[in-house]
Amino acid sequence: MSATVVEIVKSKNLKQKPNDDKLGFGKYFTDHMFVMDYTSEKGWIQPKITPYEPISLDPAAVIFHYGQTVFEGMKAYRTSDNKILLFRPDENFKRLNMSSERLAMPPVNEEEVLEYLKQLINVEKDWVPTAEGTSLYIRPFIIATEAFLGLAASKQYKLVMILSPVGSYYTGGIKPVSIKVEEHYTRAVRGGTGMAKTAGNYCATFNAQTKATSEGFTQVLWLDAIEKKYVEEVGTSNAFFKVNGEVITPELSGSILPGITRKSVIEMLKDWGVPVTERKVSIEEIFQYHKEGTLEEVFSTGTAAVISSIGELEWNGQKITVNNNKIGDLSQKLYDTLTGIQTGKIADPYNWTTEVK
Amino acid sequence: MSATVVEIVKSKNLKQKPNDDKLGFGKYFTDHMFVMDYTSEKGWIQPKITPYEPISLDPAAVIFHYGQTVFEGMKAYRTSDNKILLFRPDENFKRLNMSSERLAMPPVNEEEVLEYLKQLINVEKDWVPTAEGTSLYIRPFIIATEAFLGLAASKQYKLVMILSPVGSYYTGGIKPVSIKVEEHYTRAVRGGTGMAKTAGNYCATFNAQTKATSEGFTQVLWLDAIEKKYVEEVGTSNAFFKVNGEVITPELSGSILPGITRKSVIEMLKDWGVPVTERKVSIEEIFQYHKEGTLEEVFSTGTAAVISSIGELEWNGQKITVNNNKIGDLSQKLYDTLTGIQTGKIADPYNWTTEVK
């Protein structure tokens, strides 16, 4: 693989880098970005690294009206010996193409775009933060740019990759969070776009999220839209339940995002000999396990937070506390192992990390 | 009401106007647009008319990642005595605010924005086309502009209004169209965003639309996502069925867009003494009426096409022909009356039109 960026335009005004303890999530962006355009006649053309700068689009661009867009989220980590590692980036670009298929958008060459990303990170390597829990968040996204208000897939697109040094997603770190089961709003339904990483899925959750936050919860748990019974996701993460030694996670029904952390957790559990089952799981069943004393741990998985321990769960007026509102041993082991592999602290037996050289 | 646009910046390079017979839909845009910004501290500020020009946004703008946006569609018509009429624009801005509420976005002052629109149309009055069936399509939209990747409602927005001279939406005019009932994909579900005019609802339909077109259909008919049984919308229009003298249209369930043409049709039918019922209606029921010989007319309503006659309907491998694939008398009367009122050809007994002076 030797895809080279056609052009690198260096920024003349480098920004001051924020302190590692001030990063937060998605607030600061590096000095450069990657841009590549697509037309239906020429395909993907003009890959280039440019200064981080505004995107200028016709007001009739399809993205503004019909929301044709997909994105990915991934991270680069600095190791103690100053290497920069990516975690399963091939999976992210594979999912990007899967999302694009659902949104009637053209695929990218996954290997080439990964090479472009590595070149971008190389230009920005001083932006990969060093403090514990920090990383360089990577946001590739494709937007439909054709200036046409007819209801049809755009004939022009722009792929952009931006980078943002980030701290922990949850300001409280891996302290267990309090989750409310959402009863009114729904996130996705079969036949819809729930399995794709596309903008419309996310803005649809803001009202529920705001309401949950105002009631003192960190996130909502989404039930399926059809029966309002089965667990789908927690916020924008995948849900896991440890019940009597077995780990259960909702099966990929078509309305659940196939998380890469989810997939990694399942693979690790299998490797460790922990029974893990992907199946439909109802919220009623979870509350029943709690009543019987067999609900041992609840956690969610995602790129931003990696593993998030869930200490409290409210549904239908009942609130249950899981594992005395402490992070469980298995959740902790998953977090330590995953972040250990991601940051090069422990050996990577799965060949999941890729060094940016 | 005397909201004045703070600033009008005239374009120095006026475009050549396309011929009325070449307009199509949403391809040409006028010389100017309206722009107004919002910040959570200051509210809506700096309303202005500027040359039609690219919108420049930070690559991390919320619209690109989480799709927080709403829009409207409406038309300005030229009358034979050279007046310019808007059709129920107050309803559009009311719906814009209703959509914004669902998307966790700030409302606009409906009356003020209507005044701004009138000022914009005044600047662009020569762009309102004159030929039969043509109009000036108006697209107000609001996009979330804050540069922040955290999952939360944006604190900054931009309202833009652009204008596009258009011909008939369907190139075949009001000739009856062929519709396929979509069995796999879904458009919306209760608790989701189906009742709001927001971008994510539209890109979600492109795959189904493309498939239907390749199979020779003009549009798809959407069933409810839960039981896959009840009629929701046709393409992006509201569906109507005339059965044994009675007109039936799906009730606003929460996943159906409350169309302004839909509302107008219901009001006209009531005024005419035609029985009209808003209720759940299953596709099975419609096919049963056809079998019994009581399905008299099928049509859909929307701003772009006004009334679209449906001549063929395919579901589950069966294809039925409605009214010998000819436009029905009631559909024709609704079309003639509505477009007559819109273009000032016939008196407006409902006070639906507003002149742009």
Distance between the termini of chain A: 14 Å
Q: Biggest interface, which chains?
A: A-B, 69 and 69 residues
Oligomer kind: homodimer
Shape of chain A: globular
Total domains of chain A:
2
Strand content of chain A: 25-35%
Query: CATH homologous superfamily of the largest domain in chain A, by name?
Result: D-amino Acid Aminotransferase, subunit A, domain 2
Helix-strand category of chain A: alpha+beta
Number of helices of chain A: 8
Which CATH-level-2 architecture of the largest domain in chain A? Alpha-Beta Barrel
Question: What radius of gyration of chain A results from the CA coordinates?
Answer: 21 Å
Assign a percent range to the helix content of chain A.
10-25%
CATH fold field value of the largest domain in chain A: D-amino Acid Aminotransferase, Chain A, domain 2
How many β strands of chain A by DSSP? 19
Averaged pLDDT of chain A: 95
Biggest β-sheet of chain A: count, sense, barrel? Answer: 9 strands, mixed
The CATH class name of the largest domain in chain A reads: Alpha Beta
Characterise this structure.
Chains A, B: One of its GO terms (molecular function) is L-isoleucine-2-oxoglutarate transaminase activity. Chains A, B: Keywords: Amino-acid biosynthesis, Aminotransferase, Branched-chain amino acid biosynthesis, Pyridoxal phosphate, Transferase. Chains A, B: It holds the Pfam family Aminotran_4. Chains A, B: Its cofactor is pyridoxal 5'-phosphate. The structure is a homodimer of 357-residue chains. With 357 residues, chain A is α+β, with helices and mostly antiparallel strands. In chain A, the strands form two sheets. In chain A, strands 1, 2, 3, 5, 6, 7, 8, 9 and 19 form a nine-stranded mixed β-sheet that branches. In chain A, strands 10-11-12-13-16-17 form a six-stranded mixed β-barrel, surrounded by four helices. Chain A folds into two domains: 160 residues, 2-Layer Sandwich (D-amino Acid Aminotransferase, Chain A, domain 1); 166 residues, D-amino Acid Aminotransferase, Chain A, domain 2. Helix content of chain A is 24%, strand content 30%. Chain A is globular, with a radius of gyration of 21 Å.
